[in-house]
Fold this sequence. Notes:
Helix content of chain A: 40-55%
Radius of gyration of chain A: 22 Å
Shape of chain A: elongated
CATH superfamily of the largest domain in chain A: NAD(P)-binding Rossmann-like Domain
Number of helices of chain A: 8
Strand order of the largest sheet of chain A: 3-2-1-4-5-6-7-8
CATH topology of the largest domain in chain A: Rossmann fold
Largest sheet of chain A: 8 strands, mixed
Order of helices and strands of chain A: EHEHEEHEEEHEHHHH
CATH architecture of the largest domain in chain A: 3-Layer(aba) Sandwich
Number of strands of chain A: 8
Strand content of chain A: 5-15%
Oligomer: homodimer
Amino acid sequence: MLKTITIIGSGNVATHLGKALLKKGFSINQVFSQNKDNSFELASALNAMPCDDPKFITDESDLYIICIKDDFIAEIAQQLVFKKKIVVHTSGSVSMDVLVHFDNYGIFYPLQTFSKKTEVTISEVPFCIEANNTDAQNQLLALAKVLSNNVYEINSEQRKKIHLAAVFACNFSNYLYSISEDILNENNMDFDILKPLILETAKKIQHNSPKDVQTGPAKRNDQEVIKNHINLLANAKDYQDIYSLITDNIIKNNNGKL
Amino acid sequence: MLKTITIIGSGNVATHLGKALLKKGFSINQVFSQNKDNSFELASALNAMPCDDPKFITDESDLYIICIKDDFIAEIAQQLVFKKKIVVHTSGSVSMDVLVHFDNYGIFYPLQTFSKKTEVTISEVPFCIEANNTDAQNQLLALAKVLSNNVYEINSEQRKKIHLAAVFACNFSNYLYSISEDILNENNMDFDILKPLILETAKKIQHNSPKDVQTGPAKRNDQEVIKNHINLLANAKDYQDIYSLITDNIIKNNNGKL
């Protein structure tokens, strides 16, 4: 059983994960961040030692969790020299192969958006687990299950698809929210007026397939409303293009297909 | 002060609105639906008389709320003959002019998605109010404020823009959810894994501008991830087109513009 952990990173994922692990009785040995202040701040919150130079990351922990920006994972992993421990990263899109020089390695990917200010109910966060061998896999699954009720064994191919799906469902939805905010602000209305509807739309699919609850002019193929909407966007070509493309898609793919 | 109300319609809006009004002490005189069973069912729930023929809609109420499908509002309004009462409809996209033959008329538009099964906290539903004269406007505002803490005076031009904004933020977001479900199902994963992230994305903008919390490969202009995602969608041209267009938009409009 994994007992002692080193956290590499001091951002949102590192903070939420570190605090959740501490709460569940794990010991955090070290917190590494290239930014000294950040490493001190999080280390202090986690009863751990700070570290701002990868050379001084010790080999005393059972598990090393790399939760830093995607672009730097491979680089920091290369600087870790101990072999027998388990080393994981928490990214949705970085290959597990960047850890191939370790004996035991894997993925410990919490599929949630974290921000420092907002509390997250970690027990509801889906964790996607993968490892290079059965023993590491079992240990990581056991650890994830201590934190969360939503633990999935997900291979690298699937993880790529999850990330792609999340870009549509979350990054792109958020962009559509920002378009709607623009439209309202341009017409002297506050974005607040739409917020309850946005929340209800996301709640609705918690217990329904999105296909079954699709509504709107495109779903009804209501050409008059669609034409009016496209005209209203005459001065916003980019938004007009998005409106037309998604509308055409909904009309065409009424039953969904891939 | 408005005291007695006739509900024209028996769908989701009619049901939720009728029940909320009854709860607040208003009398519902009649419930009209062309479908006899529906008019009986809702009338019975609202202590009202059912009616399935527009000829028999009586002139005894202070207010007539037309909450039926957009396409039929003008038609039913033409069949109502009494003049001095207030007549409103609840649609986001139908012009107020379809009621122009009444002395007092307006819009009573609850900006929320209703389904019969799901409870709605009516006090949080934004109501968009408009009327053809000040007295009717004041009476409708007062009524809406009995039901909800989110009451807005919205003119017809603004209402069109709200509806357009809602299509982006809600109808189109829901379509993106369905794309993500397709991607997951195609790869033998359950849509459940994405639901917490979808909900958190909608919650995040309750207290932040979407522009300020935009994340993802397009926001970072991470061309490697973007290229991989587009390749993953090689067999789903429609979804690939949406991915490319929204990604290009995010990259281009990083600061938002209309």
